[in-house]
Specification:
This protein is mainly α. It is about 75% helix and about 0% strand. Keywords: DNA-binding.
Length: about 210
Amino acid sequence: MDVTGEEGSRGRAGYRRSTGSPRGEAKRRELLERVVDDLAVNGLVDFSLRRAARSAGTTHKVLLYHFDGVDDLLRQAVFELRGRRIGNALAAGGVPAGGRTLADRVRAVWPTLWEEELGLRRVLDQAIGLAMYDPGRYSDLAREASRQYLPFLQSLCPPEWPDERKLEISQMILATLRGFLLERLTTGDEAGVDAGLRGLLRVLELEELADR
C-alpha cells in the first residue's frame, strides 16, 4: 500500500496558518469532509496529497495551508471515519434506561461494526494495516483508535463500576472484537466468529453476575 505525499511524508508545519481562525477552521472542516468521503469510497490505496486535493476540489498547496502534510491529513481523516463508526455503535448500543446488561449492549454493537458501509470498514482496516506495516510513520493510527474506542466501551459498562474495572473490561472487549473483525475479514469464518462472540458475551454476563 502506497500512501505518499508529493510535498514530503511529514509535510511542512509552516504552511498551516489556519489554526485558530474561525473562518480557517470552517474551511479546514469542509476540505476534510470531502477527503473523508473520497476515502470511504476509494480506500487508502494510492492515497496522496494530490489525490486528496482532487477529491476536495482544491490544490495540494491549499491543503498544505490547512494540514501539516499528507500524514496529518490522513490521520485526521481516519479519525473522522472512526468517529462515524462510533456514532453508529452509540445509536445501537448506547447506555439506555431500563437496565440492559453490558452483554446486551455489546451484542447490539457488534452488527454495526461488521455490517457497516463496506468503504468505511475497509478504510479503518487498512489504517490498522498501515500502523502494523510501518509503525514508525503510522503508529498514531493505531494509538488513536484505542483512545477513541475505549471511552465509548467504558460508557457501556455499569456506571457503578470503578474506573479501573471499566478500563480493564473495555480493553478486553476492544481486543476481542478487533480479533473477531480480523478473523471474519481474512477467513470468512462467520460460524467461528459467532461462536467466539457468544463466548465473550457469557464472560461479560459472568462478570456482572459476580456483583450480585
